[in-house]
Design a protein that fits this description.
By secondary structure, this protein is α+β, with helices and mostly antiparallel strands. The chain is built from 2 helices and 3 strands. It is globular, with a radius of gyration of 14 Å.
């Protein structure tokens, strides 16, 4: 998939489906990417999933997003298809 403008890049969220595969609580010391990042509890919520084109079953990419552990309430929304991590946070909080 190629993009030639910011508008095309932003449209990926609308033209694709994101499927959350796993949500886990991780400690900052075990994830190199999180070292040096501030957290209220030193724990983060790791949300991982894959993105597919609409009506396709094979993903074209995977994502791993880290959000503060206080947003653990998004877990019930993880079964929704085509919802971003940030939309799940907005809906739950």
């Amino acid at each position: 998939m190629t993009t030639s403008s910011i508008n095309e890049l932003l449209s990926i969220g609308h033209d694709t489906a994101f499927h959350i595969k796993n949500i886990a609580t991780v400690h900052v010391e075990y994830v190199a990417t999180l070292q040096g990042q501030n957290s209220e509890t030193e724990h983060w919520l790791e949300v991982s999933g894959s993105r597919t084109m609409q009506n396709e079953s094979i993903p074209f990419g995977t994502n791993k997003v880290y959000v503060p552990a206080r947003f653990a309430g998004i877990e019930p929304l993880s079964e929704s298809t085509n919802i971003s991590v940030f939309q799940a946070i907005e809906q739950a909080f």
